[in-house]
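Hi V.,

You were right to ask for the full record rather than a summary. Here it is.
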Amino acid sequence: MQGKSQLTSEVDFDLDGKHHGYLRLPHSVHRSAYGWIPIPVISIKNGNGPVVLLMAGNHGDEYEGQIALNNLARNTNESSLTGQLIILPMANYPAAKAGLRTSPLDQGNLNRSFPGNPVGTPTEMIAHYIESRLLTRADFLLDIHSGGSSLIYQPTLLMTRHSDPEQQQRNLAILSSFGFSHAILFPASPDGSYSSSAAERQKTIAITAEIAGAGTVDTGALKQLEKGLSAYLGHLGAVSEDSLRLKRPMQETRFLEVPSQDYYVYSRYNGLFEATVEIGAEVTEGQLAGWIHHPDTPMEAPHAVYFDIQATVICKRVPAITQRGDCLYELAAQIN
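Predicted structure:
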């Protein structure tokens, strides 16, 4: 991650008030020899309270977060803040503009690209700027995802376990402030390429959110996210509670974990996937999970898919067309 970032910002993050513009990512191509890619950025600052980096569009086909952060940026007045919000609604702008999980410029997956490279591919350069210039400023990170085009999630929060018991309790309180029904605690990423890994390296407390998906905008999930986001910012002390009309958490949060690869259900066949359970369901070992149909071989019976463990369904596959190795479900277990 060593080296000076090639990105520049039209926004001065040290200034009080509301400011918006673009991060300029240099991009020399046939159409534009000295061009740059515009990555939208907003800074809203008032006082010396906590600095919160809010990010969406890490994957470009995940939409609820992009909308929620744009709404937040428009509707938040600096006078309501007691800290600073730095907002990246389309963090991997090339991917978000194309509606793709990865960038069409370099096939880069931003959430597998940290700590990045200041003179690397466009995605690596974005990752480097976020970690070296933004996370170094931030006390907290919220990176909002969804299931994208291939999955749909029950709105769920994800956070890395902390080795210090006192900090772990503070982290659980932050998760609970959203009022979501589920939060999953994970071990640290082994390769350090996620935004949460970047945040950990910069001593920033990070949460990842998974909000619906299916390549659409789920209005109910979007409203739940916006309420949770308001409560989260109030809990951190970044905004005054009155300014965002905060409410108590909508429900108590269950803390879950994904202990092993056994909690992912994969297809072993090519065909059309018919799911037989919904997200949020409690399933048991041996229960039918779905069918893989084979319309190209009409006389071939469909193959049944079963759950191997007892757990909670957190997300499921959306497209019916399925190939061997595609993830059909993610499961999670209650933390005892």
